[in-house]
């Protein structure tokens, strides 16, 4: 089975060739320093250096959809697929993003997948008039959207991080995401502030206590003012801190009114007015 798979990969990747990484049971295409998966040759996908024989980021060849496989061969199916032990071919995992993409689960659009999960950015309609939205790994819409024509730098990384932190139990996350789910330049969280790279959120300045944020080069008094938190999230975070403190003392949570804030700190479209929800 091994020689057959290797021959198939070489045939589909042409002059790139294929090798087996020592200690890594998959094949890679050596050595291409590529940071855009759309530039990978057919029948390969982008992997970080740690998975490509500790070289630079490069394109890794896998057994493709419906390709012959053996569960014990150690050669992987394409991300989003698994080796069916009965049919001995690579198939999409049931209910995964890839399964829904392959089977036209959504009539109006085909999701983009990262392995079994949904990719952060999903675009619907026709380019350039369509729109792109931020999604979590399970396929749920989260904060962030943009016209497809203007979504070249859209990563949704900020929206994804906030949601993941909240899913882990954090109730006081104060990261600010812009309209397309990327990071705003000035970020503060857990009492610390820094200037962030928009697409990744990586600090591009020193990290200072929040009461010293005015010393950061990305601080803009006109747009930020004297306080980092915006009106809606200031109220929401205060409520969450009271809830955390009361829970620590085994006290019953207070009956706060529902406050809905977007990830840029503004008020959400739906708010509570007494016992009713209003737009």
TrEMBL record:
Chief location category: secreted
Domain of life according to the entry: Eukaryota
Disulfides per UniProt: 158-177
Transmembrane segments: none
Alphabetic keyword roster: Disulfide bond, Repeat, Secreted, Signal
Species lineage: Eukaryota, Metazoa, Ecdysozoa, Arthropoda, Hexapoda
Domain Thyroglobulin type-1: 94-154, 155-218
Regions annotated as coiled coil: none
GO biological process, one term: cell-matrix adhesion
Any Pfam family hit: Thyroglobulin_1
Annotated protein name in UniProt: Thyroglobulin type-1 domain-containing protein
Organism: Cryptotermes secundus
Keyword check for Secreted: yes
Residues of the signal peptide: 1-17
GO cellular component: basement membrane; extracellular space
Protein localization: Secreted
